[in-house]
Amino acid sequence: MVEIVYYVAISLDGYIATLDGGIDWLPPLDSENEDFGYAEFYATIDGLIMGRHTYEKVLELGEWMYADKPCWICSHQSVVVERSEVILTDKQPKELVTELETQQLKRVWLVGGGQLASSFRREGLISEYIVTVIPVILGEGIPFLIPSPPQEQLRLIDCKPYTQGAVLLQYVRDRAI
Fold this sequence. Notes:
Blueprint: E1 3-11, E2 15-17, H1 38-42, E3 47-51, H2 52-60, E4 71-74, E5 86-89, H3 93-102, E6 107-112, H4 114-122, E7 126-134, E8 142-143, E9 152-161, E10 167-176
Parallel strand pairs: 1-6, 1-7, 3-4, 3-6, 4-5
Antiparallel strand pairs: 2-8, 7-10, 9-10
C-alpha cells in the first residue's frame, strides 16, 4: 500500500501560510546551510499530491522544483497544466490513492494545503506526519488541518531541534480512537 506523508512547516500557532497563501515567514531552505531535513525527505518519495491553491503558489515561486517526480493536482476546477509530470485530477482521496497504487508508487508527499490534507486525514489515508514547527506566531492564516472527526492517536518516532529554533516532529498514525 502507498504511504501518504503530510510533510509541512507550520507556525507555532498552527498555520501553514498567511491568509493570502504567503510563506515568506518561512526560513530559506539553505539558511545557515540547513534545509531542515528537506533533501533527505525528498529522496524518500516517488510522487506528490497538492491542491490547486498550493500548486498555483508553487508556480509563483518560478522554477518548478519537482520535475523528477509525478505530481497530482487535486481540483474540481480547471487548471492549466503545462508539464508532463503534472496530472490534474478531481478524484476523491480514496480513489486517488488507488490510482497511485496502480502506478506502483510507494511513498507520496501530500504537500498541502490544509483542506486537502484534512480530506485525506478524514479517510484515514495519511500514514505519517512530518511537521517542522517554525518559531513564529502568525496570528491568523491557513490552518495545518481543518478540525473534523475522527480523532486519531499518533506515535512520535523522531524529534529534531534546529539551531534556528525550529523543531521537526515526525509522527506515524497509531490508530483511530
